[in-house]
Write the structure tokens for this entry.
Amino acid sequence: MKALFLMLIALPVFAQTQEECKATYKKAVSVRIIDGINRYKVMTGPMYDRISFNEKKGLARVIGCAIAGQGQYAPLVFLDYKTGKQIASVSSFGRFSMD
């Protein structure tokens, strides 16, 4: 399953259109890496812990692209699916950090 996700984010996000980013986001939901988005809060899924830091950064870029458009950033908060606590965030300038 991890290999599938690696293929999803292999393309540089700046080269993806907003529609392509939305499609990649939907695939990430289907493989349970994330469970969904409510405004700018991203609920992680059980597979989120199994992907690397760089893959998490790529996922954040894809979600920002899906929300804000190609080459744009969206401030995001990632919440743990078990506890509901914040585990990562993306600034409005695109800086990804783990808490």
Observations:
- Strands lie at 34-38, 41-44, 76-79, 86-90, 96-98.
- The helical segments are 2-8, 18-30, 53-68.
- The CA atoms of residues 88 and 98 lie 4 Å apart.
- The chain has one domain: 16-98.
